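Q&A log
Question type: sequence-to-structure
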Amino acid sequence: MFEHLKEQPQDKIMALMNAYRADPRDNKVDLGVGVYKDPTGNTPVMRAVKAAEQQLWEAETTKSYTQLGGDPAFVTALSQLVLGDAVSQDQLAGAAQPGGTGAIHQAIELVKMANPDATIWLSAPTWPNHPSIIRHLKMAMADYRYFDDDSRAVDFSGMMADLGGVKPGDVVVLHGCCHNPTGANLNTEQWKEVAELLVKKGAIPLIDIAYQGFGDGLDADAAGTRIIAATLPETLIAASCSKNFGVYRERTGLLMAISQDTQRTKAAQGNLTHLNRQNFSFPPDHGARVVQMILDDPALRAEWEAELEEVRTGMLSLREQLAGALQQRTGSDRFGFIAEHRGMFSRLGATPEQVAHMKDKHGIYMVGDSRMNIAGLNRDSVDILADAIVDAGV
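Response status: OK
Response body:
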């Protein structure tokens, strides 16, 4: 049987990681991998997570299963963090998932069950797991413009023009704050216009949100998602805790299905738990339990929010330092977009040849489309990167 299997292409980011590890230079800089790093280059366990895990270790009396949809307390706690009071609990169906990618996969499976003829619309660019999952599930795909390479900002007019081609029942994948790999975000008014268009078109939004708290604060970062959820008749949301709780390896995520018709919500809940049963039965609980404990305990939550704010302001500071260093070197404000972007990522606008030059000559590792992880920088490496960008002629 195995002789009929085809070789799968190597993941480009994993290949970049391997090349970085093999590079013997002391001043090399890893801007490729999408994980948060502190100034020492480590991805730490957050203080609130350590404290919650200690409490859990002392109090936990069983490792038995929870429920097919995960612990309801986790579903409630995380959905309230994301949605606030945008929808009522009786409009919400939710099931814990193995990470944000698991939630996206399950969401597309739910779409396929409900409407196998739907087209899934993706922003250009998006994360590679989006089209990969859609192809794997044999669903139709289409792209909509999102990023303007000249201004390094959202191409909103192009986005709205392309979404004008959406058909009733189609699904439009939207990125929550800081989630698009370009670092460019929709503003509040643009979110409202997108919501109005999707209502008019009869489309279903699927929001992928993993960086709440990394941009302008927990509530500000959720504003667009809440506008969509409160406006659309039906909404899907895939939420991940990997980044803002730092529990990458615990695979902690949640898929939410929201309907203004509560009878449809009940049907959605049954289908979410059915899909969990088919794919993995019970979702992982450790990370979900830790997240729920943090969100429900005032002291733990205050500690988590304080550390998350340190992460957020630290990345903003790095953005401002890099934009300032490039302004000094070039005498131009053309890199000001770096300070305007939010979250871990920015798309620099370099050509693949310029990206290769920066890697070969300066040890700067970033994805070929020039998407870079700002959290991979520190005070010392900002100047190294600025020099490399100027030398490459970006």
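Response note: Residues 11-44+312-391 form a domain with the Aspartate Aminotransferase, domain 1 fold (CATH 3.90.1150.10).
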